Amino acid sequence: MNGALLAAGGLAAAGIGVSRLLPLRPLPRPTGRHLVGTRTVVLDDDRHADGLPVQVWYPTASDGPAAPLLVDGTAFGRGLAASYGIPAALLGHLRWVRGSAVAGAPPLEVADDLPAVVLVHGWKGFRTAHADVAEQLASQGHVVVAADHVGGSLAAVRPDGSVQPIDTSLLPPEGTPDYWPSARRLVERYAADLHTVLDAFGGPHLPLAGSRTLLIGHSTGGAAALMTAGAHERVDGWVGLDPWVRAISMAGGSLPRALGATTRILRSEEWTGNANDEVLLPFAADLGQPVRTIAGTGHVDFTLLGRLSPLVRRVGLTRADPDVTRRATLSAAADLLAGLPHPGPSDPPKASSTG
Predict the structure, then answer these.
(1) pLDDT tens digits for 255-268?
(2) Extended strands (E) in 202-307
(3) Helix axes 179-200 and 220-229, enclosed angle (nearest 10)
(4) Residue 25, Cβ neighbours under 10 Å: how many?
(5) Cα dihedral 75, 80, 85, 90 in deg (nearest 10)
(6) CATH homologous superfamily for the domain 2-339
(7) Domain-by-domain residue ranges, the chain?
(8) What range does the record give for the signal peptide (predicted)?
(9) Among 36-45, 128-137, 342-351, which stretch is predicted with the lowest mean pLDDT?
């Protein structure tokens, strides 16, 4: 590990631009029938003084220059370096990384029978952590939304360019007395953000979304998505990617015994048999839902971090080809999206909660 970092550092010191050796278009090209547009909005939220930044991906007919994958790659690189020990000097290329989505492209009209999808990043995540999934789903006609969960995001960037770094006080070190209560509050904080997003659908900021919604959440975001799926009337499906359900139960919380949403649960090999399984497996059994383990994968492999730099894998953050978890996530999403009920006047409403 150290040798890899020293070697890359040696290239930089020798005057060779490391960024020229690293991927600037790392995402797979979407294969759906539509081009993809993207934009960022800020939703009013009394809990966040400057609002909640939300990125939207959607189908468009307009081509153009691809938007930056990271709105502020420099700030993100600093956050990544501080959190994971990668020298910031080796992450300078992130400011130039692009996806396929076109910034500000005019949206196509979205069919109401196509569910919207909300992606939920984990602790130390970021709103484009699953952009490779978002772009593919948008190319198939879905509106896809992801918030920067302010405080838990490595670098929450607003449209005016201001950046709020991660607030590490929200989750103290494991083993401290307030760790599990803080973990549960963190999940609840993310869930409250999700209620803000879902309540904004159909309004001036998010007018495009259809009437049904699938939540896909990773780790802390997976637990928050689960809490929301059991409470918000708009949610019809939940995909949990290593959902950190132990954070709910360890501080006196309880998981729902049943969901009014169809479900898929994916687990990395790294998390197989860990303490989270003590909560996850009985919960999945109550739902009658198997937990699918993806062989050879680590917890962070559910994000696109491994696409941003080979150094991420060299320092041990990821284990597998990013396409492995992307395919599994898209397959789980496709299963649920194909089976979600169509809205109709006879559909009974689910109980709603704003907590």
Answers:
(1) 887 788 899 999 99
(2) 213-218, 235-241, 262-268, 291-294
(3) 60
(4) 14
(5) -60
(6) Alpha/Beta hydrolase fold, catalytic domain (3.40.50.1820)
(7) 2-339
(8) none
(9) 342-351
Q: Closest by alpha carbon to 164, among 177, 179, 147, 178?
A: 147
**Is there a contact between 340 and 212 (Cβ–Cβ < 8 Å)?**
yes
pLDDT at residue 247 above 80? yes
Q: State the Cα–Cα distance between residues 105 and 36, nearest whole angstrom.
A: 8
Task: Judge contact between 126 and 155, C-beta under 8 A.
Answer: yes
Question: Which ranges of the chain does DSSP label H, i.e. alpha helix?
Answer: 2-13, 73-84, 131-139, 179-200, 220-229, 246-249, 277-287, 305-308, 310-314, 322-339
Amino acid occupying residue 26: P
Strands 235-241 and 213-218: parallel
> pLDDT tens, 164-208?
889 999 999 999 999 999 999 999 999 999 999 999 998 988 887
At residue 50, φ and ψ (nearest 5 deg) are: -105, 15
